[in-house]
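Section 3.1: Structural characterization of target chains.
Under the original work plan, the team committed to producing a structural model for every single-chain target entering the pipeline before any wet-lab resources were allocated. The record below documents one such target. The sequence was received from the expression subgroup and is listed exactly as submitted; it comprises 166 residues.
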Amino acid sequence: MNRFVLGLMFACVAACVAASVGYAEDSPSSLKVGDRIELQLTGRPAADFIRLVGRPLPIKTFDDTKQTGLAVNSRVISIDDDNLTAEYYHNPASKNEEPMILTITVVRPLKDVQYRTTTPSSGRVGLREKQNNSSQPTTPALPFLRHNSYDGLKVRAWSVAYEIPK
């Protein structure tokens, strides 16, 4: 199997998703279709996804709860009836493996989206800031959804069913 087949498979999945995308014009949220959102998987969903990938992935500790899990940047693909649908694609295949695409799809109410704020200079503080004792303004960070169960979450593995011969 080659990269062409993998690309064709990805294009088919993307076309299916694009056909179901809604528009966020009527949404009360500031999120729009196409915006990035971080999915934070903990517990069984994180363990299952890492097992499907077949190799170690970076584990993150979430500050507010001290839970560990997997954080992936996904895209909002639709917003309708105050529900948000986000999807993440991952291609774990190497040269010697069968081509495959893993997807994580989340459908949750918009009210479940959480935001955290950060300061621009979260690490080192310069001499001028120390002398002025001025605090840095907060800036909005990437919105996120945290999951520790399969409620509203689907993890899927897509593989090639048929390859068109040359």
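The chain is about 20% helix and 35% strand.
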